[in-house]
């Protein structure tokens, strides 16, 4: 029985040891390759930013009282000086009348005190009254004068409170929603006063963006080489695009940069002022900010689509003499129009890189390369 089993397995064992078995060879993969091109380009960088209002005012009452009426529409444009909210003015009108009456009283006392002092002066010169009596009359005049000043100040305060009962827009802008409606009591005149609405102007508008440490150092080196202006130079211009368009259709002028990098993010905050006359841009929108870095200079360019990603690094597949490729990490610069990426280090114009099928490439794998032009927006795949 054991011998029969061995005889049945023998053909299989002999097949495994067959020296004539053919080895399947890997077929070369077709791939397009191209030389990097050298061109004079205007170096730019693109940053992520956000629009922010130049001003923002929380409209708060300066006096307390019941809301009598609201004179603005939510979400509508208001102008500086427009009446926004009116607090019931009757208590303040009464306070003004009371302060005015008080002033008239103390003014009458002041006049009487001055007359008494004048009579006392004649009498003291004739030795008809004691000197002490004269001093009392003189003191009464001074006290009456002080009472007049206090009454005038109280009247001024009462008039101010009456004025503050009519709340006007301190700036021009877009009004927010009405937070407190007529009939409600509002507390005013302190830091915790109720917010009635918020006014935010849209013209002009700020765009804040962050520049990383490496770009700050790069710009600083350009400055010390005389290839870029510093803080004292002409205000730099930037171009801005919003999220629904690839076109940088808005213009801004840098008018502020922080004096130190944020230690938590290693970035420098920069601010650009955008005219926004038609008020198309709204605070809070994201933006892509493109700014020029130095003067035009000759740089090497490759298709951005020909570069791979390895975490935060970029690499290209460089063609070797044996028609295989090696992965080469490169330093990249700004993206130019048409999809060409600036290469600052890692390649030469004598080398060729793969520009198609880069997701399928592996080091050492045989290729069948065909050379094409390194042109932007190519349809080569």
From TrEMBL:
InterPro entries: MdtA-like_b-barrel (IPR058626), MdtA-like_BSH (IPR058625), MdtA-like_C (IPR058627), MdtA-like_HH (IPR058624), RND_pump_MFP (IPR006143). Residues 96-123 form a coiled coil. It is found in: Cell envelope. Its main location: other. Pfam families: Beta-barrel_RND, BSH_RND, HH_MFP_RND, RND-MFP_C. Residues 97-161 form the Multidrug resistance protein MdtA-like alpha-helical hairpin domain. Belongs to the membrane fusion protein (MFP) (TC 8.A.1) family. This is Efflux RND transporter periplasmic adaptor subunit.
């Amino acid at each position: 029985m054991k011998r029969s089993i061995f005889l049945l397995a023998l053909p299989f064992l002999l097949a495994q040891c067959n020296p004539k078995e053919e080895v399947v060879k890997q077929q070369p993969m077709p791939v397009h390759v191209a030389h990097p091109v050298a061109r004079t380009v205007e170096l730019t960088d693109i940053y992520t930013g956000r629009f922010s209002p130049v001003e923002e005012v929380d409209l708060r009452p300066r006096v307390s009282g019941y809301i009598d009426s609201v004179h603005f529409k939510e979400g509508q444009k208001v102008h500086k000086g427009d009446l926004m909210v009116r607090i019931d003015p009757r208590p303040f009108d009464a306070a003004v009348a009371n302060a005015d009456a008080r002033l008239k009283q103390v003014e009458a006392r002041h006049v009487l005190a001055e007359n008494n002092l004048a009579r006392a002066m004649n009498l003291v010169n004739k030795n008809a009254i004691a000197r002490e009596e004269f001093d009392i009359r003189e003191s009464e005049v001074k006290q009456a004068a002080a009472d007049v000043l206090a009454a005038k100040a109280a009247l001024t305060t009462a008039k101010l409170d009456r004025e503050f009962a009519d709340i006007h827009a301190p700036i021009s802008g877009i009004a927010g929603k009405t937070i407190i409606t007529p009939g409600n009591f509002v507390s005013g005149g302190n830091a915790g006063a109720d917010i009635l609405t918020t006014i935010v102007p849209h013209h002009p508008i700020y765009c804040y963006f962050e520049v990383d440490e490496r770009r700050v150092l790069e710009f600083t080196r350009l400055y010390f080489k005389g290839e870029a202006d510093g803080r004292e130079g002409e205000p730099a211009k930037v171009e801005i695009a919003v999220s629904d368009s690839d076109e940088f259709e808005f213009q801004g002028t840098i008018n502020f940069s922080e004096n130190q990098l944020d230690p938590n993010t290693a970035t420098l905050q920069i601010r650009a002022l955008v005219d926004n006359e038609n008020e198309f841009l709204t605070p809070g929108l994201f933006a892509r900010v493109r700014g020029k870095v130095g003067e035009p200079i000759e740089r090497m360019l490759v298709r951005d689509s020909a570069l791979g990603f390895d975490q935060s690094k970029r690499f290209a597949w460089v063609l070797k003499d044996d028609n295989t490729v090696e992965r080469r990490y490169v330093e990249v610069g700004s993206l130019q129009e048409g999809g060409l990426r600036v290469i600052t280090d890692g390649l030469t114009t004598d080398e060729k890189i793969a520009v198609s099928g880069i997701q399928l490439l592996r080091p050492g794998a045989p290729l069948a390369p065909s050379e094409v032009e390194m042109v932007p927006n190519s349809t080569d795949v």
